[in-house]
Each structure stands twice: as structure tokens, then as C-alpha cells.
Amino acid sequence: MPTLIIARHAKAEAPAPGLQDMERTLALIGRKASTKLGQELAAASLAPQVALVSPATRTQQTWKLMSAALEGVDTRTVDGLYETDVEGLLSVARELEDVEVAVMVGHEPTSSAAAAYVAGPGSSTDALKSIAQGLSTGTAAVLEFDGPWDSLGSRTARLTAVISGRDVE
Length: 169
Hints:
about 30% helix, single chain, 5 helices, 6 strands, about 170 residues, alpha/beta
């Protein structure tokens, strides 16, 4: 059964004059949360074969730290995941073939909106409540669905869990 993990980058430094949004790096707490999120995914037996990552520095750093706990993942930087909408995110996922589990590392508000859009019957009520106000930094929504990747759309998946790496000091 295909599984899509939609992760939001971990806590980044605040915007500042002269600093391009694409270049914002992770804060120390974000680095710790990224590492823990990868560990939590591994503990949940979620082993992605492919990672699709926004080109922003903070998403790249989040994935690099997450991936330490997840071996053998084919990592792909996808320019279209930066400043995209739900349809843009899903169009990237729909191109996947012969992949059981994929992780996307991106941004808000698109990450939570995409998870809510594809979540349908059989979704966890607690997980739906968790993403209702947005996907927190360093957190991932886990979506399972039946059928091929190109069939991913409105209410076609089950939001089974929201996994966080945020419980760090």
C-alpha cells in the first residue's frame, strides 16, 4: 500500500533584512527536532525509498538530519516544492512509480493543506485534529492509500498519524 509522508521543515531562523527566504537555516532546536523526526519515523517502521525535498536551505537541512535514521533513501531536490500549492505538491507525488513509501519535505501552508485535501474516509480523527491548524515545524503527516500514485487526489488517502520530532530540549 503506497504511503506518502508529508513533512514540514523544522524550526528555522527568523526572517531578517538581507536574508533571502530560501537561505534561512535551521535553528538549533530545529536541528534537534529534525534528527528526532527521522528517528520517530524509523521507530514507526516508516522507511521511505524516495525523499522529495524543496530546494530551500531549511528543508535540505531538515532532510539531511532526518535521513541519518533512514538508510538507503533516494534523495531528490524538487524545485517545484518551494512556493507551491496543493495541486503542485500532488503533481510531484503523482509522478512516482514503483515506490512503496515516499517522504516530501516542504513548507506551510501547503503541507497541511495537502494532507487535509487527500485525507478521506478511514482517517484518524486525532490526526485530522492535529493538522487542522497547520502542520507544526518538525512534524510529518502519514497518509496511506490504495491504488497507484497517479490516483492521489481529494479524499483518496487515510491520514493515519502525525509524527513529531518537536519533543526535544
